[in-house]
Amino acid sequence: MAYYPQYGLDYNPEQNVPRTKTVTLNFKRHEILDDLKQYSFVIGDILDTNDEHARHQIQDIAEDGNIDRVTRVMNLCISECREILFPYTKEDVDISELRTNTLETVEEYNIELLVPDDFSTTTVTLLEQLIHEFIVARIMADWMSITNKPETATWLEKADDALTKIRRCKNKRTGRIRRKMHPFP
Amino acid sequence: MAKVPLTITLYMSEIIYRVQNKTYLTGRSRQNGNNHEEVANMQNNDDEENKNQILLSIGNAFATLKTKLSEWLDESTTSASNAQIKENANLTLTLQMPSNYNKSTKDSIATMASDYIVNVAIGDWFQITNKNDAKDYFDAAGANLASIREAANKRIRPTRTEVSA
Prior knowledge:
A: two-stranded antiparallel ribbon, elongated
């Protein structure tokens, strides 16, 4: 089989279209936090209780201390998305790598994709919106599991739904899929 | 998110005046022509033994208040004692509220904290001088505490951060 170094080692001209286009999905931390704060405020506001303490625990999702848990889950979500989009995000490990569990607060997350040349821009848009939705829903589910258990399932369902759709996006193409010709079995 | 500092100062002179005024009015309204001594005892004044009892009650009430507000209190000292509080020392609460704390309730917290201390002090005083009325003041103090917690737990609706180009 011919080797096309510009398309990577796994490129097969019979099955794949060239991959020369890069897409960067940029996620701003404050945009995610703003959504989290809004949703938490509403959930706390409509909570059927006179217990103001229970209410404020829900609404204080982005306050000191609480924000650390949010950051952990946010980092995890981004890593999870990068892993799901593995065919486009794959990076080889260095010869030697050291990782620590130090909490890192990142103001902007980038997910770099090397996509097939026929990858649709509409899919990119959908992907970006689904990943944002997934991150927000997953963090909400986590926070609700701590402060307001009955709401957890709803947010988990939203997160799983977004994740399923992200997986589907991964396999979308604009070109026709052709069955390979095998004249002899 | 940065904490919002909230300092509440309760003036001792104001608290003592309100205790004396309320006990005076209560005594006056309980007069029936035959209970002059009881009425006089109800009416708290500046005599040393009276003042000491009120200061003791105010100190106890303030300590309880700090326990109830401990979630937000910012105190780093590691020593405490049972020394009686001074008549000329104002009571200060330095709270570190979350960034989404609803600041419109700060006056409620100050007023309710003052009311709580006054009600406990009068309740204590009436336990000695006018038992029939004491429970009412302790009940009122309990309601004050609930109001303080409600006010301190109020939150504002978040506003979206403007995206810089």
